[in-house]
Amino acid sequence: MSVAASEEYPLVPVEVSDEEWCAWANTLPFAIGFDVRCLRLVDGAGEFVAGSSPIPVNPNGAVHGGVVAAAVDHALGVTCVRAVKAGDGIATASLTIDYYQPCELPMRLSVSVRRSGRSVVFAQVRVTDTDGELRAEASGVMSVRRSREARRALEYSRGPNR
Predict the structure, then answer these.
(1) Rounded to an integer, what distance in angstroms lies between the CA atom of residue 28 and that of residue 130?
(2) Which residues contact 148 (CB under 8 A, 6 or more apart)?
(3) CA distance 87 to 6
(4) What CA dihedral angle connects 37, 7, 89 and 35, to 10 degrees?
(5) Which EC class heads this enzyme's classification (predicted)?
(6) Backbone angles phi and psi of 9, in degrees to 5
């Protein structure tokens, strides 16, 4: 898989197939730590499954709402970074989740980019169970970080000793 040669986001794929985008998503630390696997990633849409929780489920068998929110944010980020110009990054600007029923494992997350512009990307996520029953819905706004802003954010995240 080829990756961006820029120092802004050295791991974000550039000019690769849908399968390679999905493979990249599955190598991200969050995907591994939270067991959120990318099943399909195309321009404007993504399908993910969360197979386990990094913390025990609630006594009623439900996944903690914060874990659901984190998985949703990850799926949004992976799908939305595909919708911006190569070299640009994204950051969550707003995330709203409506929980209709307790979420149980495995959870399926279906992301749809609704609108992508120069400064923001709007997307929606449906969280369903294995039978396709809707458990939660989310909407997110991702702020586009132009290449220069992305480089500064990356340098800041590395800190003085990294």
Answers:
(1) 24
(2) none
(3) 7
(4) 20
(5) hydrolase
(6) -140, 80
Q: How far apart are CA 129 and CA 103, in angstroms?
A: 7
Question: Do 26 and 15 form a contact (C-beta atoms < 8 A)?
Answer: no
Question: Is the overall model pTM greater than 0.85, yes or no?
Answer: no
Beta-carbon-side half-sphere exposure of residue 19 (alpha carbons within 13 Å): 1
69-89 pLDDT tens trace:
999 999 999 999 988 888 788
Hey, what are 83's tokens? 């919708």
Structure tokens at 73: 């944010």
Q: What CATH number corresponds to the domain at position 69?
A: 3.10.129.10
Tokens of 40: 């399909």
pLDDT of residue 86: 80
In a domain, 10, yes or no: no
Q: For residue 78, count other CB atoms closer than 10 A to its CB.
A: 24
